[in-house]
Amino acid sequence: VEQKMYNIVGNSSDFILEGFFFPPEARVPLFLLTLFGYIIIVFLNVMLFLVIILHKNLHGPMYVLLCNLIMCDLIGSSALMPRLMSDFFVDVKIISFQACIIQAFCIHMYHFGAQLILGAMALDRYVAICNPLRYATIMTPRTLVKLCSIAWGTTFALVIVLLLITIRLPKCKSLIVQAYCFCGALFPLACGDYSVNNIYGLFVTYLTFAIQTCASHLTVYIIFETALLFSVMALRFPNVNPNLTKTFGTVMITVPPCLNPLIYGINTKEIRNTVLKYFNKKILSC
């Protein structure tokens, strides 16, 4: 089957995603389930984003950082889930080189960006807990801009380098044994030595591990990092079941974007009260 897939693509620049294989009768239910999950992710994140933007009392550092995390989550889930839904209905999942690189770029922006933004949020909580009297003078708007710029700038630089050292490799294979494109799944397709990619990938993964201080941070962190660490390490051991790698990789991109609005939104008193006031006004006006 694998050799047949290689022959379909031939010498073109296209790739084939192995993805998930389901019987035909399961495709429509899985499509609807994934669509429902994607709608929930977009709805919760956009609603939380608008609540923060439209209410001045929520323009503090923690909520600004939360808006950055929301954007990061939407990038990751939107890079994966629409493509995943369309792949349910095809047996041979062909993706062009350009589309694969764009998806990989977005996936890695989510991977590294989420970790760095969560790290910035943990730093904010550290200052609030350990230096409450100096919080306003430390976490100024200028400091906040610097934190966000460092998080996104570092993420962009790390991803660009990762993509460049991946696309430089000559391609000998076309079958990506994953459900989506990312650099760790692309460099094993190369003919040459990709030890540099292995070293850089592991280095960046450990570099961006953030230290969390709060229980809510820890919940998302454990899910995200466990799935990410398993995916990264499994790529270095070919005997690991590919279905486990694909499952953990998908969980890493779909579960945190759904949990973040609940943990950081509904679980936060100021946001919860703002949302409840809004709905109470709507109910009373009806």
UniProtKB/TrEMBL annotation:
Its main location: membrane. It holds the Pfam family 7tm_4. Keywords: Cell membrane, Disulfide bond, G-protein coupled receptor, Glycoprotein, Membrane, Olfaction, Receptor, Sensory transduction, Transducer, Transmembrane, Transmembrane helix. Gene3D superfamilies: 1.10.1220.70, Rhodopsin 7-helix transmembrane proteins. The chain crosses the membrane at residues 30-54, 61-81, 101-123, 144-169, 175-192, 199-224, 244-264. Residues 44-262 form the G-protein coupled receptors family 1 profile domain. It comes from the Eukaryota. GO terms for molecular function: G protein-coupled receptor activity; odorant binding; olfactory receptor activity. It is a multi-pass membrane protein. SUPFAM superfamilies: Family A G protein-coupled receptor-like. The keyword tRNA processing does not apply. It is found in: Cell membrane. GO terms for cellular component: plasma membrane. Belongs to the G-protein coupled receptor 1 family. This is Olfactory receptor. The lineage of its organism: Eukaryota, Metazoa, Chordata, Craniata, Vertebrata.
